[in-house]
Amino acid sequence: MRKAVLSLALLLVVAGCSSGSDSGSGASVPGVSDSEIVVGTHMPLTGPASAGYSQIAPATKAYFDYVNAAGGVNGRKITLKVKDDGYNPANTQQVVRELVLQDKVFAILNGLGTPTHTGVLDFLNSQRVPDLFVASGSRSWDQPAKYPGTFGFNPDYTVEGKILATYAQKNFAGKKLCFLGQDDDFGRDSLLGVTGVVGDAGVTVKQTYTTSVTNVGPQVDAFKAGGCEVVVLATVPGFTALTIGAAARQGFRPQWLVSNVGGDYNTLAKSLGDAKPLLEGLVGANYLPAASAASDPWVQLFQKINTQYNAGAPFDGNTIYGMSVGYLFVQVLQAAGKDLTRESLLDAVQKGGFTGPGLAPLRFSKDDHSGYGGLRMTRVTGTTQDYFGPAYETDSESGPVTEYQVAPPAPPANGIPAA
């Protein structure tokens, strides 16, 4: 009997030592081996948001391939598993479960979309999977108490709405300001930022769209009937192009102010084809280097990587975005150290202090998971989209919009962040 008890105790000790938890020294860590780190993402490679966005994950992978060719991070090479969700929330839940439960990824990186990613927050939290740099500006990602493992990347949509509205207030005073937003947190948070500056009565006509309905004629009709002169668009690229095209067919030519989410010139020009001159004068905002800035050292680095590791894919804002995410993730891996666990990864993000190509501050701390905190205005002239004026920063509440005067540092000589 005593031998049986001792044998049972020994089995329990062995079982405890071989637990799948990643919190103890020497324990196995999902997605991490001595030679590899496996991360996953969900992206709209097809569907209503695929225009431009389908280029993001390949660009991130290209940056990882560049780092891997130099030896990886602490001897580990990064593998990115990309699953297409078609910008459909039901698909997102399925593919994210596959990534976590079947592929055993270390983390989810840059999952794209407000309606899509919202549906997997609780699952990722329950599985204690790091959920880094969500490709959306929803304020949902900045809930440290509820979702301690989730961090944003994009400036949140309320911050952006405040900056766009401040520009409109200064430059189009007295003109009728109107708004079109996606029918989810993207549109609602953006409108909250706009009305926070101009007041609810300061927006003459408010309209929404859903990605399952590609006819935006009724919304354009409402803008035209309301005498709208300036229209803020909280739209994904496909719906930015649809709206501008529909407006032109009705002889309606307001000043467009467009979110960074749907304002990349090259993506829009491709969608509009021969109608791309309609983009002349388009004003938007962004926070990463412009693809047209040939002398920018970050653009030069990313162009080189794009040519060598991304089969010379189109180089635009989506490419820069994807590589910027890759660069930040490598920074975080370096900060997390050689003894890599999910806990050390999240601790590294929360310590903050990261820099990169961004024109605004990265706001990561224990109490702030929001990502970038500002933007700079852009304008399309001919076939070029360039920045103008200073960068701005603000908060998601009632704080002022102020100039941000810290320039991004040059990238390291080898293009890889140091440990």
Shape: globular
What is the element string, with H for helices and E for strands? HEHHEHEHHEEHEHEHEHEHEHHHEEEEE
Given this structure, which CATH class of the largest domain is correct? Answer: Alpha Beta
In whole angstroms, how far apart are the ends? 55 Å
Pairing-aware structural class of the strands and helices?
alpha/beta
Instruction: Please state roughly what percent of the residues sit in beta strands, choosing from under 5%, 5-15%, 15-25%, 25-35%, 35-45% or over 45%.
Output: 15-25%
Rg estimate, integer Å: 23 Å
What is the number of domains? 2
Strand arrangement within the widest β-sheet reads 7-6-8-9-10-13-14-15
Which spans have pLDDT < 50 for at least 5 consecutive residues?
1-26
CATH superfamily of the largest domain: Response regulator
Helix and strand arrangement:
Blueprint: H1 2-17, E1 36-43, H2 50-53, H3 56-69, E2 77-84, H4 89-102, E3 107-109, H5 114-118, H6 121-126, E4 131-134, E5 150-152, H7 157-171, E6 177-182, H8 185-198, E7 203-209, H9 217-225, E8 230-234, H10 237-249, E9 255-258, H11 265-272, E10 283-286, H12 297-309, H13 317-336, H14 342-351, E11 362-365, E12 368-372, E13 374-381, E14 384-393, E15 402-404
Parallel strand pairs: 1-2, 1-3, 3-4, 4-5, 6-7, 6-8, 8-9, 9-10
Antiparallel strand pairs: 10-13, 11-12, 13-14, 14-15
Helix pairs in contact: 3-12, 3-13, 7-8, 10-11, 13-14
